[in-house]
Automatic annotation (TrEMBL):
Belongs to the type II cytokine receptor family. Residues 5-107 form the Fibronectin type-III domain. InterPro entries: FN3_dom (IPR003961), FN3_sf (IPR036116), Ig-like_fold (IPR013783), Interferon/interleukin_rcp_dom (IPR015373), Type-II_Cytokine-TF_Rcpt (IPR050650). One of its GO terms (cellular component) is plasma membrane. This is Interleukin 22 receptor, alpha 2. SUPFAM superfamilies: Fibronectin type III. Pfam families: Interfer-bind (PF09294), Tissue_fac (PF01108). Residues 122-216 form the Interferon/interleukin receptor domain. GO terms for molecular function: cytokine receptor activity.
């Protein structure tokens, strides 16, 4: 009888331990945010507990095995840079994250992202525009973001929009880092310039940059 009672107590403790390990709520809002092919996984903390650590894995769509993201194991922050793991823009990926608490040996279930494509899901940031005015001549220099140019070495173009008084626009296309020189502009006229980065290969483009305006001499 005593042995049966002891066995029941041990089973009860084991059940409590298993229950405690399953008590953690999974992280929420697991999603990729990608700009210029810099791919960041973000999530929301399930509770306000200070003991929580997070563990991130990813896999290629169609593969069975999940792989650990080495620099995102046992972390306290709520984001993980997966740019290296998801560098092949031809592939589709999943990522997942779970929470753990060493103090209670508890773990949550995995929370998974939606399927992610670097090529189709990344957003392209607007380029920078620099103007140099000399009397009635304007030199326009446009540069795409450095992060983008490190990823896409070729095939990046920029559209330059010249906005005349009254709203009329002219559009020029130049390679990233190139300059556009406009000569013999009308004197004492305000011109505004915007630029847009375009990647024809991936059928992607940025929003237009903030307008930069000058008044000719």
């Amino acid at each position: 009888m005593n042995r049966l009672l002891l066995g029941a107590v041990l089973l009860g403790k084991l059940a409590l331990r298993v229950t405690a390990q399953e008590m953690l709520t999974p992280p929420g809002q697991v999603k990729f945010e990608s700009t210029d092919y810099k791919n960041i996984l973000r999530w929301a903390a399930p509770t306000n507990s200070s003991c929580l650590q997070y563990h991130v894995q990813y896999k290629i769509y169609g593969e069975l095995d999940w792989l650990n993201v080495s620099n995102c194991q046992g972390i306290h922050r709520h984001d993980c840079n997966l740019s290296g793991a998801t560098s092949d823009v031809r592939e589709w990926y999943y990522a997942r994250v779970r929470a753990s608490c060493a103090a209670t040996s508890s773990k949550s279930a995995w929370a998974m992202s939606r399927r992610f494509s670097p090529r189709w899901d990344t957003k392209i940031s607007p380029p920078t525009v620099k103007l140099n005015l000399s009397k009635q001549d304007v030199v326009v220099q446009v540069k795409a973001s450095r992060v983008l140019m490190r990823k896409v070495h070729n095939g990046v173009h920029n559209h330059i929009y010249v906005v005349h008084p009254g709203g009329k626009e002219e559009v020029y296309e130049v390679a990233s880092g190139s300059r556009l020189t406009l000569t013999e502009l009308k004197p004492r006229i305000r011109y505004c310039f915007q630029a847009q980065t375009v990647i024809p290969r991936d059928m992607k483009s940025s929003d237009r940059s903030t307008a930069e305006c000058i008044t000719t001499d």
